[in-house]
Design goal:
The complex is a heterodimer.
Chain A lengths: L7 E6 L3 H10 L8 E6 L7 H9 L4 E6 L10 H19 L6 E5 L5 H18 L3 H5 L14 E6 L2
Parallel strand pairs in A: 1-2, 1-3, 3-4
Helix pairs in contact in A: 1-4, 2-3
Chain B lengths: L1 E5 L2 H7 L5 E7 L2 H4 L5 H17 L5 E7 L5 H5 L11 E5 L2 H10 L3 E4 L1 E11 L2 E6 L15 H4 L26 H12 L34
Classes of the chains: A alpha/beta, B alpha/beta.
The structure holds iron/sulfur cluster (2 copies).
């Protein structure tokens, strides 16, 4: 598993984590290239369905970054995110993917170094866990952005 | 409204082990409000089942549809175009009524994804509580609007039972004693004398006995 390079999706709150990522960049801090950052207006936008989708489309690990507890720009978004992450962890455990592949972290916009550290820590964790069981049986398609085979059809309300 | 909750994922997965392609049908009614079977939960269940099966090396194809309601034939009919020959099973995320309606209408293996719990209401976001036992003949006018059939652990009609302590039920100290609530309420209304009347046994023939109950409104029937 030595050359396993995990794919990790980081859902980042615009007001803290995203700014912290910016700061990490300005400070020229190094962090693993495994992280795909997705900006959210608030970690309160965290959606169990979307977290699962990240795994289904090939992520080996996913984390949500929200503001420090008590400091959410929208007051309670990060607490809500925390509960949804917990719920998604439970589902991942039930599926057998393992809830430990999903995590919620809190940091402030000033914590550029912490952003890099979290990226480092989490990448290490996922490297230790190895590829997601979904990627073990079925290596993810080589091309970027292709994801899973799209076997689900979504239809809205019955017209 | 009807309150339901998700069955464990493993149980649902076990019911459709042999299926290759399934139709996952949500309901836009009660179960959307209690966050058990709406469009979002349908998506989550479908994704979870796909991943579980992919992990087991036995991929599953899913089609997701959320009907406005599963307890009306018009909406259930709208599912027809999705019930193609290659669908091996239908999973319904409605209450038991929806599951039965789908099973009646379509010649497929239809399985419930939820456990239907009770007729209740939202106490706070994310908390639902039973409020009516669907007894068929409402007596709330005698009890200040508090239902002894369902909110008293013993369903007694001439309460309290004698085990009530500090306003709590002896069966579970978390539960307010329904008869204490009834007493307090009637007191505020100045109608305590209602409690002096002995309630005769309730006519339970209007409740569960005698097969499925039916409500008919002749004035709105079409035929
Ligand atoms: S008396 Fe019967 S109908 Fe009325 S709330 Fe209680 S169970 Fe429901
Ligand atoms: S304590 Fe009150 S609610 Fe509990 S069984 Fe007795 S009368 Fe009913």
């Amino acid at each position: 598993m030595q050359d396993f390079e995990p794919k990790i999706v980081a859902f980042c709150c615009y007001y803290c984590a995203y700014s912290a990522a910016d700061l990490a960049g300005s400070l020229r801090l190094q962090y693993p290239a495994n992280i795909r950052v997705i900006e959210m207006p608030c970690s309160g936008k965290t959606d169990v369905r979307v977290l699962l989708e990240a795994f289904e489309k090939g992520a080996d690990g996913v984390y949500v970054l929200g503001c420090m507890e008590g400091d959410c720009h929208f007051l309670k978004g990060n607490y809500r995110a925390k509960r949804r992450v917990k719920q998604a962890k439970k589902i991942l455990d039930e599926i057998g993917i393992g809830g430990e592949r999903l995590e919620m972290y809190n940091l402030s916009a000033a914590m550029g170094p912490r952003f890099a550290e979290i990226a480092q820590e989490f990448t290490e964790r996922i490297k230790k866990l190895g590829p997601s069981p979904l990627n073990k049986n079925y290596p993810p398609p080589p091309k970027e952005g292709e994801g899973h085979k799209g076997n689900s059809t979504k239809a809205g309300e019955g017209e | 409204m009807i309150i339901a909750e998700a069955k464990p994922l493993a149980e649902v997965a076990g019911l459709i082990n042999d299926a290759q392609k399934i139709l996952v049908v949500g309901c836009g009614g009660c179960v959307t409000v209690c966050l058990a079977g709406g469009e979002k939960e349908t998506g989550i269940l479908a994704a979870a089942l796909r991943m579980l099966r992919k992990k087991e090396g036995n991929p599953l194809e899913t089609v997701e549809v959320t009907l406005t309601r599963q307890c009306d034939p018009e909406y259930v009919d709208m599912l027809a175009k999705y019930v193609t020959d290659d669908i091996d099973a239908i999973i319904s995320l409605a209450c038991g009524v929806g599951v039965q309606f789908l099973a009646e209408r379509y010649p497929k293996w239809v399985v419930p994804a939820l456990n239907t719990k009770f007729a209740g209401a939202t106490i706070e976001h994310g908390v639902w509580e039973e409020r009516c036992g669907l007894c068929g003949e409402c007596i709330l006018y005698k009890t200040g609007g508090i239902c002894p059939v369902i909110r008293c652990s013993k369903s007694i009609l001439n309460g309290p039972c004698g085990g009530s302590q500090n306003g709590k039920c002896e069966v579970n100290p978390e539960t307010p004693c329904a008869w204490q609530l009834i007493y307090d309420r009637l007191k505020t209304l100045g109608k305590l004398d209602l409690l002096l009347e002995i309630q005769p046994p309730k006519d339970w023939s209007k409740s569960r006995d005698g097969g499925p109950r039916k409500v008919v409104r002749e004035d709105v029937r079409l035929a």
